[in-house]
């Protein structure tokens, strides 16, 4: 049965690039979080949204305009366990892309070997969207991927951060927290959550994505985002990643401007050497070491 639009609403289309960031991205910048969608690929049911089509070629054009060198393609929830669109993208750009898949926690080693050869470097847990893997899958997934040096990528709610602090460090794997753990940035309520994120980043395998401020606040100028970026950059410069979150799924108003988003992150980071760590070096180590 097809879902009605009210059950899985159609996202806004992405905004075309009309200008470039005021300051170019560091040479070799790596976009660690984006999605692609193909018109004939079946969508999961149930799902949280219906995507606009945004192909690998569309992202490549976007990356070329902005000077993005490489990318990490993240499996969107609307495709569930069907990673075919992602795998086709990796096959088309094997030197430029790595992938984060969603797979059955019971998957065998042979399948992980196959995916690793194709450029997959992690598995996504997503507790916010229909079709995502639950946090309770972390232990089984960690056991399956540990010898491959993959990471767990976690899209979670902020009230799950304390659970992560207990659950993740003993797993002895790398892990990445998407979108600042969806910490609400309005007012000063974010400070305890950022301290909790810092504690996760204290772990040798813990990383945090400085991504999607428009998901964290409705205030003009993304109030609080710059202060959070500066706070984390001061304490954990080697554990931060940048991603575009292109094409900005699950938005039905106020589609962001990509150049403006990049400007805000770069302004908050400030120091060019620090920017190079966050935009290039940390992601190169985590995803492109082989």
UniProtKB/TrEMBL annotation:
<dbReference type="Pfam" id="PF04909">
    <property type="entry name" value="Amidohydro_2"/>
</dbReference>
<dbReference type="InterPro" id="IPR006680">
    <property type="entry name" value="Amidohydro-rel"/>
</dbReference>
<dbReference type="InterPro" id="IPR032466">
    <property type="entry name" value="Metal_Hydrolase"/>
</dbReference>
<dbReference type="InterPro" id="IPR052358">
    <property type="entry name" value="Aro_Compnd_Degr_Hydrolases"/>
</dbReference>
<protein>
    <submittedName>
        <fullName>Amidohydrolase family protein</fullName>
    </submittedName>
</protein>
<feature type="domain" description="Amidohydrolase-related">
    <location>
        <begin position="30"/>
        <end position="288"/>
    </location>
</feature>
């Amino acid at each position: 049965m097809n879902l009605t639009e009210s059950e899985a609403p159609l996202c806004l289309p992405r905004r075309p690039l009309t200008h470039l960031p005021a300051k170019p991205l560091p040479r070799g910048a790596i976009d660690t979080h984006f999605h692609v969608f193909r018109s004939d690929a079946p969508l999961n049911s149930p799902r949280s949204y219906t995507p606009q089509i945004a192909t690998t070629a569309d992202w490549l054009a976007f990356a070329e305009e902005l000077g993005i060198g490489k990318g990490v393609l993240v499996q969107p929830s609307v495709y569930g366990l069907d990673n075919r669109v992602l795998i086709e993208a990796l096959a088309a750009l094997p030197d430029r892309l790595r992938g984060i898949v969603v797979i059955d926690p019971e998957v065998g080693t042979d399948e992980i070997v196959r995916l690793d050869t194709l450029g997959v470097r992690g598995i996504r847990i997503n507790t916010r969207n229909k079709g995502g893997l639950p946090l309770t899958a972390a232990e089984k997934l960690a056991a399956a991927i540990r010898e491959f040096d993959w990471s767990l990528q976690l899209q979670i709610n902020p009230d799950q951060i304390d659970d992560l602090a207990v659950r993740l460090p003993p797993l002895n794997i790398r892990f990445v927290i998407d979108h600042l753990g969806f910490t609400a940035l309005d007012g000063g309520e974010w400070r305890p959550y950022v301290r909790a994120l810092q504690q996760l980043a204290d772990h040798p395998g813990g990383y945090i994505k400085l991504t999607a401020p428009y998901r964290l606040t409705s205030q003009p100028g993304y109030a609080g985002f710059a202060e959070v970026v500066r706070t984390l950059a001061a304490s954990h410069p080697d554990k931060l990643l940048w991603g575009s979150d292109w094409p900005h799924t699950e938005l039905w108003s106020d589609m962001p401007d990509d150049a403006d988003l990049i400007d805000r992150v770069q302004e908050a980071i400030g120091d060019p050497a620090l920017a190079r760590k966050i935009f290039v070096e940390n992601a190169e180590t985590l995803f492109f070491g082989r």
